[in-house]
Amino acid sequence: MAGIMKTPSAPAPDPEIAAAQDRQEARLAEEERSKMAQISARRRARMTGGRRMLLSPMRDDPEKGIQDTLSV
Q1: I need a surface site. Which of 4, 14, 17, 48 has the fewest CB within 10 A?
Q2: Distance in angstroms (rounded) separating the CA atoms of residues 60 and 67
Q3: Which tens digit of pLDDT belongs to each residue from 4-62?
Q4: Domain coordinates of the chain in residue numbers?
């Protein structure tokens, strides 16, 4: 009589499903890391201006500005 009232145990999870879920979690974590890096790069570029800024110390003569190479 005890066997009739006993609840059945849950089947073991499929290893293929568990592996697919692990791959999906890894992919989502990588996408999130990539998006955060892009946001950080945009923020950093906006704050500092970058190398192509008009008065950047990386330019040879920043006061000269931009030249047209086609004009005489």
Answers
A1: 4
A2: 13
A3: 778 888 888 899 999 999 999 999 999 999 999 999 988 887 777 665 666 666 666 65
A4: 23-49
